[in-house]
Prior knowledge:
This protein is of the alpha/beta class. Helices cover 48% and strands 15% of the residues. It has helices at 13-24, 31-41, 44-54, 61-73, 90-103, 117-125, 165-188, 201-211; strands spanning 2-6, 27-30, 81-84, 109-114, 127-130, 136-138, 157-158, 192-196. The longest helix is centred in the C-terminal third of the chain and has 24 residues, at 165-188.
Amino acid sequence: MRLVFLGPPGSGKGTQAQLLAAALGLRHVATGDMFRQAIQEKSAVGKKVARLVNNGELVPDALVGEVVRDHLDGLPNDAGFVLDGFPRTATQAEMLQEILDRRGWSLDAAVALKVPEEVIVARLGGRRVCGHCGATYQADQLPDPDNGKCERCGEPLVTREDDRPEAVRRRLELYWSTARGVEEFYAAQGLLREVAAEGTVEEVQKALLAALGRGGNDPH
């Protein structure tokens, strides 16, 4: 099974993609991991990405497509995967189609996690991050949300500036400016599967399996 995972910041996309990949015996292929691997390997593509990242610049569609192509080309012919973080634009969706066509592969579904904006604003606004090690917590699970300490390293927890309500709304507006085109691309092919993702991690995972026609008790 080969899947694309779509969802705005705060939808739980990364967590759910990893869990689903584990449940179905698939590879979790995340764009961020691909970038880090390319940079670490100092490949030709990796060097291009490193220059942009080090200068604080966005990686253009064409270069993102190169990174994804190189990574997917390194997978065996029978590989199944959950692609997380790509495509982000309709242009990238077309690039992915070309990459898959070259391998003789096809997608089984593009899964879109749906969460109301107010839920995302509240969810991200309640996130606390350790500025030292990067560990993440939810405020409602901390004994003292305003003066929380990291369980890993003991450093103070903070609210990231881009998790504040006005910043979250801007991030969502930016996300949907391109994401709608991606959803329309896959809807036109009959591949789009929308899943409500407001519940617990376990509830959303069960809904995902159901949307893909896999029983929760026996996902294989």
